[in-house]
Amino acid sequence: MAERIPPELQTQLLKLQQLQNQLERLTYEKSVIEGELREVNEVLKELTNIPQDAPVYKIVGNLLVKQERTNVQNELNERKELLELKSRTYQKQEGLLRKQFEDLQKKVNELVQKYYPQGTQGSSPPKA
Amino acid sequence: MSDSTSPGRVVVSLEDLLAQADALRKSIDALQKLRDEVYESLNSVKSSKDAINLLKTQGKDLMLSADRRGYVLLKVNEIPISKVLVNLGLGYYAEIEPDQASKILDEKEDELNKSLQDITQRLNKALEEYTQIAEFLNRAQQSQRSGE
């Protein structure tokens, strides 16, 4: 027959699962932001490599619209700043969440040791 | 967590293994999709480079497809190849000389090849882990059958 997990341990395990889900979501969002940032840097690099007199266009729907290079660079630099800010925020959040996760993991391990002590031959864990 | 009846042995629940296998399966699917997308981008970059080289060497008497399937072809006598429009990324294009465009496309190709290597490595690692879990689950199933 399946043993019931003590309520205290069950609560902490649920919290741990929620934290893990939050961490996964945050990591994914951070990777998306970093991908965008890489792309912005790539375009800015290309803009500096091409001749100054080369016309620059932006695709708007099905049309290519001519743009002022300085406007394009300003627009991309603004976008870059915003993405860097987001990235730093996500990094801080990730650090905090990771710390919480590790602390809770320790707590869960302690509870496991408490309810399921090792080495006590034949002793069945307490029923909740 | 060690089993209380036999110290030193690690007990892993089948539910945990199945959950792990499921997560790996999802990861493998995502990586395969990503790899296919990168392959597609690489092919596009290569065909763009080929087109530029072709126009540089023989810009006369070309047949252009008016549609994707090539149902209608247009005969073009001469295409001026002094400038081409190249995609810089994020929907921005620049009108530059073919040689400069080729250079940009070369850089893009290198970047995509690096990405492809990275994705392939991650995919192989995930597949290896998935195979190990699958083998373990098969063994567990067989031992359960023989125990019945």
UniProtKB/TrEMBL annotation, chain A:
<dbReference type="GO" id="GO:0016272">
    <property type="term" value="C:prefoldin complex"/>
</dbReference>
<dbReference type="GO" id="GO:0051082">
    <property type="term" value="F:unfolded protein binding"/>
</dbReference>
<protein>
    <recommendedName>
        <fullName>Prefoldin subunit beta</fullName>
    </recommendedName>
</protein>
<comment type="function">
    <text>Molecular chaperone capable of stabilizing a range of proteins. Seems to fulfill an ATP-independent, HSP70-like function in archaeal de novo protein folding.</text>
</comment>
<keyword id="KW-0143">Chaperone</keyword>
<feature type="coiled-coil region">
    <location>
        <begin position="9"/>
        <end position="36"/>
    </location>
</feature>
<dbReference type="InterPro" id="IPR009053">
    <property type="entry name" value="Prefoldin"/>
</dbReference>
<comment type="subunit">
    <text>Heterohexamer of two alpha and four beta subunits.</text>
</comment>
<feature type="coiled-coil region">
    <location>
        <begin position="65"/>
        <end position="93"/>
    </location>
</feature>
<dbReference type="GO" id="GO:0006457">
    <property type="term" value="P:protein folding"/>
</dbReference>
<dbReference type="GO" id="GO:0005737">
    <property type="term" value="C:cytoplasm"/>
</dbReference>
<dbReference type="GO" id="GO:0051087">
    <property type="term" value="F:protein-folding chaperone binding"/>
</dbReference>
<dbReference type="InterPro" id="IPR012713">
    <property type="entry name" value="PfdB"/>
</dbReference>
<keyword id="KW-0175">Coiled coil</keyword>
<dbReference type="InterPro" id="IPR002777">
    <property type="entry name" value="PFD_beta-like"/>
</dbReference>
<keyword id="KW-0963">Cytoplasm</keyword>
<dbReference type="Pfam" id="PF01920">
    <property type="entry name" value="Prefoldin_2"/>
</dbReference>
<dbReference type="GO" id="GO:0051131">
    <property type="term" value="P:chaperone-mediated protein complex assembly"/>
</dbReference>
<comment type="similarity">
    <text>Belongs to the prefoldin subunit beta family.</text>
</comment>
TrEMBL record, chain B:
<protein>
    <recommendedName>
        <fullName>Prefoldin subunit alpha</fullName>
    </recommendedName>
</protein>
<keyword id="KW-0175">Coiled coil</keyword>
<comment type="function">
    <text>Molecular chaperone capable of stabilizing a range of proteins. Seems to fulfill an ATP-independent, HSP70-like function in archaeal de novo protein folding.</text>
</comment>
<dbReference type="InterPro" id="IPR011599">
    <property type="entry name" value="PFD_alpha_archaea"/>
</dbReference>
<dbReference type="Pfam" id="PF02996">
    <property type="entry name" value="Prefoldin"/>
</dbReference>
<comment type="similarity">
    <text>Belongs to the prefoldin subunit alpha family.</text>
</comment>
<dbReference type="GO" id="GO:0051082">
    <property type="term" value="F:unfolded protein binding"/>
</dbReference>
<keyword id="KW-0963">Cytoplasm</keyword>
<comment type="similarity">
    <text>Belongs to the prefoldin alpha subunit family.</text>
</comment>
<keyword id="KW-0143">Chaperone</keyword>
<feature type="coiled-coil region">
    <location>
        <begin position="109"/>
        <end position="140"/>
    </location>
</feature>
<dbReference type="GO" id="GO:0006457">
    <property type="term" value="P:protein folding"/>
</dbReference>
<dbReference type="GO" id="GO:0005737">
    <property type="term" value="C:cytoplasm"/>
</dbReference>
<dbReference type="InterPro" id="IPR009053">
    <property type="entry name" value="Prefoldin"/>
</dbReference>
<comment type="subunit">
    <text>Heterohexamer of two alpha and four beta subunits.</text>
</comment>
<dbReference type="InterPro" id="IPR004127">
    <property type="entry name" value="Prefoldin_subunit_alpha"/>
</dbReference>
<dbReference type="GO" id="GO:0016272">
    <property type="term" value="C:prefoldin complex"/>
</dbReference>
